[in-house]
Amino acid sequence: ALAYISTSYIDNKKTLANLLGILALAALLIMSTRSDILAGYPNAWSFAICLSACLLIYIGKRSHNIVSRLLSSAPLVFIGSISYSLYLWHWPVFSFAHYVGWLQGIPSRLLGIALSFVLALLSYYLIETPLRRKRYSLLKTLTILAIIPAIAFSLAYSLTQKAQGFPARMGQRYVDMERALTAYDPSARQACIDIGNIDQAE
């Protein structure tokens, strides 16, 4: 009888863990597809995300359930190993693509994801892993962490200035308006823009 009760308890516990794991994972997947998550952040959505993540961690430590086995699979574990690099790289990739107006559909978004993965892999194998194993001099550290990023940001800034802020990011209507305003350039425009010279423009 004790063995039966113990087995039933273990089975019920596994069933509950499987159910909670599936619900938590499904909640995270559903919320990842919504576009209104960040509206009013922090909000109830952010609490639900944190709760679902905590639930997955909790049941993963205490039972070998379906979701835990799925998340422990080799492909997902590998993605987890490069997740920090992927997190860092997806910001500049998608921000720049959005800024220049390239995020116009699913293909461009998939291309952004693929590019983020490529950069994350390069960063993981060429930067993260070597830096964990080696100790560099102060000069080399400054070069990697300060000088090279400063040069990269300077080049990005120069490119943005040369392209006049990539007006296409605002849509074709804005491009047409900017082109019309540029074609018509009265001498009094700057005086009107300059608050101190409003009277002069009049």
Question: How would you explain this protein's 3D organization?
Answer:
By secondary structure, the chain is mainly α. The longest helix has 31 residues, at 2-32. Mean pLDDT is 79; it is low at 1-7. The chain is extended. The protein has helices spanning 2-32, 44-62, 66-71, 74-81, 83-99, 106-133, 138-162, 172-183, 189-193, 198-201.
Per-chain topology:
Elements: H1 2-32, H2 44-62, H3 66-71, H4 74-81, H5 83-99, H6 106-133, H7 138-162, H8 172-183, H9 189-193, H10 198-201
Helix pairs in contact: 1-2, 5-6
Question: Characteristics of this structure?
Answer:
single chain; 202 residues; disordered N terminus
> What is the mean predicted local confidence, pLDDT?
79
How many strands appear in the DSSP assignment?
0
For the termini, the CA-CA separation is 98 Å
Number of helix segments?
10
Q: What fraction of residues sit in β-strands?
A: under 5%
**Secondary-structure element string:** HHHHHHHHHH
Pick out the low-confidence regions.
1-7
Report the structural category.
Answer: mainly alpha
Taken from the alpha-carbon principal axes, the silhouette is extended
Largest sheet: none
Summarize the structure.
The protein has helices at residues 2-32, 44-62, 66-71, 74-81, 83-99, 106-133, 138-162, 172-183, 189-193, 198-201.
